[in-house]
Amino acid sequence: MNRRLLTLVVMVIAVSFMVGSSLCYSAEPIKIAGIFALTGRAAHIGTAQKDAVLLAIDETNQQGGINGRMLEMVMADTESNPTKAVMALKKILESQDVVAIIGPTLTGTAMAMRGFIEKEKIPTFMHSGGDVILKAPLDKKNPNSMPKWTFKSPYKAADAMGKICQYMNQHGIKKIGFIYSNEGFGKDGVRNVKVQAPKYGVEIVAQEAFQPKDIDMTAQLTRINAKGVDAIIAWTVGPAMGIIAKNIKQLGIKAPLFECHGAGDPIFWKVAGESGEGVMMPSTKIVVADQLPDSDIQKKMILDYVKAYQAKFNREPGTMVAYGADAAFITVNAIKKVGPDRAKIRDAIENTTGYVGISGIYNMSPQDHNGLSMDDIVMIKATKGGWKLLD
Amino acid sequence: MEFSQQIAQYIITGLTIGAIYAIVAMGFNIIHNATGIVNFAQCEFISLGGMFMYSLAVLFKVNLIIAFFISMAGVALIGALIEMGPIRHARSKEIIILIFLTIGLSEILRGTAQVVWGTDNVGVPAFSGETPIHLPGGAAIVPQHIWIFAITVMVMLMLRYFFKKTLMGKAMRATAVNRRAAALAGISVNRMVLFSFAFSGALGAVAGMIIAPISSTSYDTGIMLGLKGFAAAILGGYGNFAGAILGGIILGLLESLGAGLISSQYKDAIAFFVLLLVLFLKPRGIMGYGESERV
Prior knowledge:
Chain A is an alpha/beta fold and about 400 residues long.
């Protein structure tokens, strides 16, 4: 009796332990860090990207996760501030075991985080617009110290700028003024426009800066206009996109306005109002998916994604969503392929070729941690609260 | 474009921005005069004004004029509640403690606004269209600029009348000069402090609302405007009304002329360099004389 009871108890314990441990095993999620500008001046971008990443993770989890393990995003806010971004990153790495990082949003925060990421060796897919995050050496004294673990999903700013200059060349625009926000992304734009404009026979005759939180740029635009320009390029994201459009209308400047590859977003209309009419910009196809020819291989997947996004969040996705989604899907695909191992994930992301994303076809390589080309970009024009595809 | 036209444009721009700084500076001054503290929640009054206006005018389609006054009253009420709650019941009346209290309150207000409205920047319709008006000098302004000037001037005149002519205004000035003497003369000091917070809330809201159609608004737009307004108040002489106007306009002009004539990259640096220079030469600010001349 005693002996049988003991056996029973041992069996019960053994069984429950097995069940318990297997439950524990299947419940142990794979963690990805999501670091976005959820507050501060780029909050509208960071929030859209966070939603895009969440949607990708939800989709994966609904399909049963990765080998029975769910994906979980550990989220942090950079507050649009480089110092806070690094603090948030360190806090996550100290307390959680993450296999990859998605984000951050702004070029300035990305540059601040980059050195730490490379030291810790975590594959990181950034949403930042500036090219410096891939191009600038990690150690200023050693030009060969290129980032190994850092990737970025938005178009190379050089390509986006090239696309604008190419468009200008085709439409007889020769003299331009360049206005930029005086921080990471804007300064990156200055470097790019100086390289791209001459390639397409465009001359920069005026160059002006403003502070990211400024509420009026008429002084700078007056100075640009005095030089008699054919067009103006504004390189910034956030409320300034709209303020510049309004100031240009106010000053009666006839030269058309071009903005950056982050402007094609519903937020543009919120900040620009009716002054946004006619502004042109390079963009992903997400905002003009229904105007694409049926032969476009991205069309169907973009339309499906837009539908899923609208169903979940009940609003229109903008171009920022595309960058967030692509980064998330490529990372998730890499984890699916090689499992939760940081080094293997990095290699898998770097070997991604021919991936049909929303922003374009990603062909990564050790030399190119972005993988998009100028052909993936379309030019669009802000028209009646929406967007028109230009050819 | 002619050089004189450019100068005209820089001056118009500087005056518009300066007018906003001046209103914000006045808000800081009123509370300072009543209590001796710097109210950092002033920044949030500006954001809240803009966001209330957005909610009423854009989301609920209320008439702009009605929306303007409701928002003003709403933020004034929040200002009053801040005084009636935390400020009045603080155990310590040390100035430094109360200032820290306003920093905390400002964080609470901003956090709440972020939860309520989210983080997007939103536009507010201009009070009377966006068709630019071309002035004889060659400069262009939008009707909203005229509104900003007109409302600022009106607010200044009303405040002047209130403080110089009405009994309550005089009582508030008396409180500012000497709290104890005012109390002995039968003035309810608590009530005066309460009014100063409400006034300050209303002024912040006005600043936030009149600039919103130009710059768009969000839960944290007030921070930058608040700090610039604070700088304007110091430049003019902290606590001095005429100084607030002067400080605001000088700061606005410095920024705009600095960006237009010298370098847009260093325009804030130019403005703040002049601010430091003034404070070095006149530590109390341009119009600051001393304690007895506040108000």
